[in-house]
Predict the 3D structure of the following.
Amino acid sequence: MYSLNDFTLTIKEGDIFGLLGPNGAGKTTLISMLCGLIKPTSGSFTIDGLTYSKNSGEIKKIIGVVPQEYALYPTLTARENLMYFGSMCGLKGDDLKEKIIKSLDFLGLLKFADKRIETFSGGMKRRINLIAGILHNPKVLFLDEPTVGVDVHSKNAIIAYLKQLNKNGTTIIYTSHHLSEAQDFCTDIVILDRGTIYAQGTPADLIATTPNAKNLEDVFISLTGKDLRDDI
């Protein structure tokens, strides 16, 4: 994993912003700092005009985080998991119950609401994992590989749900190795490698300005090379 070198990055309100890069490029480090999990050794950042040095509590209230690993209790039902995570965000009562029902219904899981998570498929767990991170209607949502390891139907449901969240005002910051998905999904993209920003722009602009590039994958390979990034 690379540390982040000095750079300036601006993410506009309302963006679906892709952080793309090879394994170990610094994506997780960057997201961990923005979420307050890692303290930067130098530099600073703001979210919605708030800084972590002065407003960490306020920032935590307006962000949502959906990790790549399932953050769910396997022996609890989907509804019980979501009631727990919603209560952790200060939600309660009928408002929380209604949010859970609407989210489960949108993602095709309402009929499984009272089934234990350990009985769910990977795609179903991925959808519940997403709901757990957005019940409090965050202004900024951080997503780490939200469609990894899921079937096509689950992937389509997740992307549709995220687009609706964005339409309703949530800014999305997203990492993925699915470059075709990122090309269609993101409004703006940064390609990060070795802790440094190599390029930033809309998918269409990055493709247009990279010689012989027909898609985002061509841009990615052109900038980061073809060498394997295996690490132990």
In short: The CA atoms of residues 32 and 38 lie 6 Å apart. The chain is about 40% helix and 15% strand.
